[in-house]
């Protein structure tokens, strides 16, 4: 059996080193960043799959108290189906405990089957006591401009 030439071994070693470096780069930026990612994922999933009551529970408690959702408003959310939820990027300042991201949401009226696009800016606040992120921007307005 013939051993691979030194150039081949060097190339394999370089590839392995690059893979190890890439995996190391995937390491978490910390518990706050992980919690933000999980919160945003849960929020977008709730909106995308029509769990508006679950999404309501992710809003900051002070916001919910100041802007209570009526049964009629909740029924309006139940009359639409979200066809997509696209993250268009955002900014976060983990030190300050704030984050924001712009999203585009495809909305289909269940009665007319008309689809439209809604834009929404999420704003998030880190609650140090609860060790969690709260959404402070309220529910998306699917009826803007109507």
What does this structure look like?
Keywords: Signal. This is Lipoprotein. This protein has 146 residues and is of the alpha+beta class. Helices cover 39% and strands 29% of the residues. The chain has one domain: Roll (Nuclear Transport Factor 2, Chain: A), CATH 3.10.450.50. It contains 5 helices and 4 strands, in the order αααααββββ. A hairpin with a 5-residue loop joins β2 and β3. The longest helix is centred in the first third of the chain and has 20 residues. The N and C termini lie far apart (76 Å).
Q: How is the secondary structure organized here?
A:
Layout: H1 6-25, H2 31-48, H3 52-56, H4 61-66, H5 71-78, E1 80-93, E2 98-109, E3 115-127, E4 132-135
In helices, the fraction of residues equals 25-40%
The overall pLDDT average reads 85
The tally of beta strands, per DSSP, is 4
Terminal-residue CA separation: 76 Å
State the low-pLDDT regions, or none.
Answer: 8-27
Can you tell me the overall shape? globular
Beta-strand proportion = 25-35%
Question: Helix count?
Answer: 5
The assembly state of the depicted protein chains is single chain
Give a short synopsis of this structure.
39% of the residues lie in helices and 29% in strands.
Structure keywords:
146 residues, alpha+beta, Nuclear Transport Factor 2, Chain: A, four-stranded antiparallel sheet, 29% strand, signal
């Amino acid at each position: 059996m013939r051993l691979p030439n030194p150039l081949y071994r060097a190339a394999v070693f370089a590839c392995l080193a690059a893979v190890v470096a890439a995996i190391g780069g995937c390491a978490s930026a910390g518990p706050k960043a992980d919690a933000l990612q999980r919160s945003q994922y849960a929020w977008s999933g709730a909106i995308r799959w029509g769990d508006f009551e679950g999404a309501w529970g992710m809003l900051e408690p002070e916001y919910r108290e100041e802007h209570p959702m009526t049964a009629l408003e909740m029924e309006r959310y139940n009359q639409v189906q979200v066809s997509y939820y696209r993250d268009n990027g955002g900014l976060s300042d983990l030190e300050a405990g704030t984050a924001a991201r712009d999203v585009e949401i495809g909305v289909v009226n269940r009665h007319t089957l008309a689809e439209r696009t809604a834009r929404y800016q999420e704003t998030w606040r880190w609650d140090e006591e609860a060790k969690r992120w709260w959404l402070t921007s309220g529910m998306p307005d699917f009826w803007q401009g109507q």
